[in-house]
Structure formats: C-alpha cells, structure tokens
C-alpha cells in the first residue's frame, strides 16, 4: 500500500471516530427510553403508541451504525421483517409486527454494549494520533515559550531542553501507530456491530426466500412477456406471409394450364414471400437467442451490437472464457437493452462498453457522454434490465447526473468459464 493511502485511511478513521463517539453516547438515552416505553406498555393504549415510535428511533440509529460499518468494509444487512399487508391500517397489527420481530430485540440488546465499545474504540482512535501530534507540535512549543518542565512518552519529566525535543521522534512514531491502527479499530467496532445487528441465519433465509419469491415472479412475468412478443412477431410477420404464400401457390395451381404466364408471375411472387417469411423467422430466432452469441460468445456478440449502432462504440473485454449459456444470454440482452436506451434517449456522441470478470462476478459497464438525468422510474428500459438481472441475483447501479456522463454498472454472479482466446479491445 502507498504511504499516502494508509495516511488517508487513518485520517478518515479518526474523523469517523469523532462521529462515532456522540452517536455511541446516544445509545444510552435510547436504551433508557426503550425500557421506559416497555414499562409503560402495560398501560392500555400508551404502549401501542409509544413503543413503535421509540423502535423507529432505535432502528434509525442502528441503520447509521450499519452505514458506518460499510465505510469500514464490513457489510451489515438490515434484518427486519417486511411489513405485512394492511399493517398500516391498524395500530395493533403495527405494534404486533414490531414486537414479534426478533431484530427489534437484537437492536435493544446492542444499545448498551454498542455504546461502550463505540465510545472506547472511538476514544482510542482519536486519542493515540492526538497524543502523537502533541509530541510533534506542542511540547517543543511549550519548552520554547518557557512554560516549565514537562514529560512525554518515555521521558518523565524533562530535565533538559534536549530531553524535550526527544518528544519529536516519539510523537512521530506514536502518530504513525495511531493512524495505522485507526482503520483496524473502526473495523473491529463494525465487526462487533455486525455480531448483533446483522441478520441471523434464519433471518437471512427468510429474506432470501422473500427475495427469490419476488425475482421468481419477475422472471415469470418477463418470460410471459417474451412469449407474447414471440407470438405477436410470428402472428404479425411470418404467419401472415405464410398464409399469403399458400394462397398465392393455390392461385398459381389454378392458372398453370389456362394462363401459364400469370402462374409464373404468381410463383415468382410466392418465392419473394417465402424469402420475406424466412427473414421474419430469422428475426424471431435472433430475439430468442442470437446466432452470433452462440457462435462467437459474449465478446463477439457485443461487438456485433456495437457495429449496428449509429454512434461510435468502444468495446473492451477481459473475459477468461465462455460463460454458462443462461448467464451469457442474460448478459447479452441487458447490454443490448442498455445500448438501446443510449441511442433512444441520451443524445450521446460516443459510448464505451467494458466487460470483465472479478472473483465470481461478471461486470458490465456502459458509459455515454449524453445528456444524463437517466432514472429507472422514468421508463421501462432500466426497470427491465433490473428484472432480468434480478432473476440471476444480479444488480444494477446507475450514475447519471444532469449533463452526463451516464454510467450503468451491471453485475451478474458467474463462476464458471470454458477456455477462450486472450482478452481483446477495439472499437465497434
């Protein structure tokens, strides 16, 4: 790690410690308030009103702790059960929902130990670097101003001015140790927070089941919409042409003896209709699984997409091999939808597509220099991408400030590859 990196991380952790101490101290009045509302809960009606309000405050405080943990590299998911249908319509059902959620009691159990750990570690995070800074700046200044003898580090008291200036190397060493240890202290605090505020194994399973229920419903809806699209394309395209082809051939059969010239014209028309019907069928097949994807993989298929766009597209890939067919198909279609959104809405002059694999994740990033301001809630394109990714536990993040650039980052879990040629880059 570069020296500037650990200094920067240490300073950020020290600043985080300044925030954590007052937040941790806030845990104690929240705990006292929680106990008071539980005691008052025996009073009919009063507990129904006060306990949910205090619980919301405690959950907001716990969410702050989870966000601070994420800044230290420790992900802490929210474990709360989803609100049941109609819970907002009745105070009793709302109270019961909060009261029976195990995460509520884990939040309460975290308040006091979380306050102690947060204050102690936060104080250490701040005190050690400050003590080191004192040795560098304050001790020589005090001696220079003649404020009297003092002591620092391993020398107590100073007997000479030379002893006083030995605080400089000691202070530098203590400051370095404090800055180096600060991120680890913050991470330890985050790990302790995760111990109580993260979902339990049962809660994770419940959340996973709930997520799978939603993604399965989205996948079924997407599949049904895709089948309707295929049916519509066949009905309005190839089927109409095939019916016309049959009628044309039937007329030619009737005219072949009486009007051979007219029959030949009808047969030529039938040949053109069959060619058009074949083109329609190929278009439908490409919509199901493009042949270029099967033949050349995701790399080649994305480059083919880039060549078909009316704006310059730069494609850079670093894939170790071919993906599993379902994942490869999903990746192709989300990239295609993202590029279609660019051409329809962004007014971009250039686009870049980046694909790479990290760990067990396939990452796809689309960057354009258009107008920006993209919003998933503003249309069906980005929502469709999210639904297609969710079926594979994938995610999408969007950065699109007004004026651009727009950056769409999509991730798909993908662990298996088959051998492939070396990574390549180029312009479509």
UniProtKB/TrEMBL annotation:
Keywords: ATP-binding, Kinase, Membrane, Nucleotide-binding, Phosphoprotein, Transferase, Transmembrane, Transmembrane helix, Two-component regulatory system. It catalyses: ATP + protein L-histidine = ADP + protein N-phospho-L-histidine. Its EC number is 2.7.13.3. Residues 28-197 form the Putative sensor domain. Gene3D superfamilies: 1.20.5.1930, Histidine kinase-like ATPase, C-terminal domain. GO terms for molecular function: ATP binding; phosphorelay sensor kinase activity; protein dimerization activity. One of its GO terms (cellular component) is membrane. The keyword Transmembrane applies. The chain crosses the membrane at residues 12-32, 38-58, 108-131, 137-158, 165-185. This is histidine kinase. It comes from Actinoplanes regularis.
